[in-house]
Amino acid sequence: MQAILLFAHGARAEAWAQPFRAVRERLRAARPDVPVELAFLEFMQPDFDTALAALAAQGATRVLVCPLFLGTGGHVLRDLPALVEAASARWPALSIECAPGLGEDAEVIEAIGQHCLRHLSG
Fold first, then answer.
1. Which architecture does CATH list for 2-118?
2. pLDDT < 50 regions, the chain
3. Has this prediction a pTM greater than 0.90?
């Protein structure tokens, strides 16, 4: 069974996570047959391993990790691959692959541009 793991940075302010929780809930509503969890790199819970364990417990055999980062910096280039490698060793029967970061998607870039233009005065 395929599953989705949304992966965000995390912050000290609880309200920061609300947009990411909204994405998780939209995905769950759109595809109730696909388990979806949200994990954070730091400051917030669940962490990557805890969320992945929850997906495995739900019967996931393939997990698509979707990094919710606009830029592809150190967290996506170094931290995420290390987490995936460790998780693959821990759960060898689980296939884990990563989608590109949000900022690499042309539609996301277009949506950000349109958002800015909508708020332009004059």
1. 3-Layer(aba) Sandwich (3.40)
2. none
3. yes
